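Troubleshooting log. The previous structure file for this entry was overwritten by mistake, so regenerating from the original sequence record. Sequence copied from the archived sheet and checked twice against the printout by T.R.
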Amino acid sequence: MSPTLNVVSNHNRIILYMSYIINNDIPNHLIEEITSPSHSGRKRQDMFIKGPVPVWWLRKAWTECRPSSLVFGAILFLRHGMGVKPKPITKAEMNLFGITRWSQREALEDLAKAGLIILQKRGKRLIPELILTNP
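Regenerated output below.
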């Protein structure tokens, strides 16, 4: 089969598949033929927070801080599980969770007031470090 005929054949299959989806009646004998190939063997791009995450820390962050502080704590635990040494939070990390610069500053202040992190100042930047022992 030539490449051109293969493309046309796949295009027709996609159109057929879309019409079946609209009518919600895909015949069983077509499901295997239409579905995309397996992605086994590829490395997953999901990120996970590696524990243990102390429940007392989460409870205190939830009761004494703003919700953005709890989300910010997730970033700190994500880094902690990856073995990243304390450093300033990057824009990419903040964007991952939808945190703005202003909510970052408020979250840092809330977590520090609650005694959940220690803030070290390096120049103009604040470096958060988790406190993992229950006071």
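The longest strand covers residues 117-122. Archived copy saved in two places this time.
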